[in-house]
From TrEMBL:
Gene Ontology molecular function: methyltransferase activity
Superkingdom as given in the UniProt entry: Bacteria
InterPro entries in the cross-refs: Methyltransf_12, SAM-dependent_MTases_sf
GO BP terms in the entry: methylation
The keyword Transferase is assigned to this record: yes
Pfam families: Methyltransf_12
Name of this chain's protein: Trans-aconitate methyltransferase
Entry keywords, A to Z: Methyltransferase, Transferase
């Protein structure tokens, strides 16, 4: 029997409980932080994480001195996120990504494998909010799922490469990699089709740039 594809309305508690023991941040998070740190002091920066799960990435960002705003649909993680928020640099909310409107201004928008679970009918509005939230020079670090993914359906958002490239129009694309292969998932092996994106919003022109 095929396991139903997860959605933003799925019960994520078991997955997040398993992820809570993960010590390392995801590679995309590390590359995003490096890109952000290349320009300015991280302690003056604000990150928005969409689908924060057990808070592994948020904890790392806080340790680096960023202020962080997070959202996740799983209410079971709220106590752990409240403990992280006690330091005053984290604002967490329980809810679905598609219901957060508007997003706060962000030097970094991070979504590790979370945006594909936004329903297709809501995705364009979510993407517009993400683009609007990025400050000039801000970093976008997200995973998007492709149309060949085993979970592909209108209950989530699964894209072709031209669609992904169109979403990135106007951004400085630092990295766009595509992976299409069979591999493990929390629910069992499946075919993954994933686009990993690292990009920047346009920077403000220098005061000394010619008019």
């Amino acid at each position: 029997m095929t396991t139903p594809a997860p959605t933003s309305r799925s019960d994520w508690a078991a997955y997040n409980a398993a992820q809570a023991g993960r010590g390392r941040i995801r590679p995309l998070t590390a590359r995003a932080v490096d890109a952000l740190a290349a320009d300015a002091d991280l302690r003056a920066r604000h990150a928005v994480e969409l689908g924060c799960g057990a808070g592994v990435e948020a904890r790392h960002l806080l340790a680096l001195g960023l202020t962080v705003s997070t959202i996740d649909a799983d209410p079971s993680i709220a106590p752990a996120m409240a403990a992280l928020a006690a330091g005053g640099a984290l604002d967490h909310r329980t809810g679905r990504i598609e219901d957060w409107d508007p997003l706060p201004a962000a030097d970094l928008v991070l979504a590790n494998a979370a945006l594909p679970f936004v329903p297709r009918h809501a995705f364009d509005a979510v993407w517009s909010r993400i683009r609007a939230a990025l400050v000039p020079g801000g970093v976008l670090a997200v995973d998007l799922f492709g149309a060949e993914d085993d979970w592909s359906s209108d209950a989530g958002t699964y894209l072709t490469r031209p669609e992904v490239e169109d979403l990135l129009r106007g951004l400085e694309v630092v990295e766009l990699t595509e992976r299409s292969e069979r591999g493990p998932a929390f629910s069992g092996p499946k075919h993954w089709h994933v686009f990993t994106v690292l990009a920047r919003a346009p920077r403000r022109p220098s005061d000394h740039s010619p008019v």
